Amino acid sequence: MTDVDDQHLIRPFTPLHGHGLRLCAWDAESGAQAQDWLRGALDPEFGRWNTPLTLIHDLDGARAGMRRRAEQAAQGTSVSYRITDESSGTTLGHLGINVIDHVFRTARVGYWVLPEARGHGVATRALRLGAHWALTDLGLHRLELGHALGHDASCTVAERCGFRYEGTLRGAMFEAGRHDAFRDVHLHARLATDPEPSEFGGVRPARAGS
Asked: Which helix (H) or strand (E) holds 30?
């Protein structure tokens, strides 16, 4: 289609930093990072609110999942950020910008935070960085964030990051640990034309090295 901005189809995903965080690519060949990915996938709190299509049980599964994400990034359909502490480089969690549609300029966001990193605003800070990049550099118009009904913490993160609540989708995601039953989803979204959230404090995400 001639009205698609081609530069956003080939622009590589860039590391981001700000708000005490650095967002960078996962490395499936790193044993430590694969262990972090596995811990995130096996975390009971993650399992309570998420049921991936491919369940991960061991390091081989974690590496395979990381490689699938890297392939999707190379195809321009998804980007998976490893959330790290900007000073120490310690892994704190994951932020994904998924199902990227360069025609309609939409995507869905998701995230998880490791248990020891919770309670410090990691998800909020990471989502602000990722959303700002996706709605500016990546050229998207709309980002959607869906979470299981009752996941109040995710609802709070969405609102703090400027994702407005748009309604409840009936039976739109799997029940915890099952692929044969469904539950309702709260849908939030943010447009490129929406204002930055007031808590952003005027700090703009910067590319690594800038």
From this structure: none
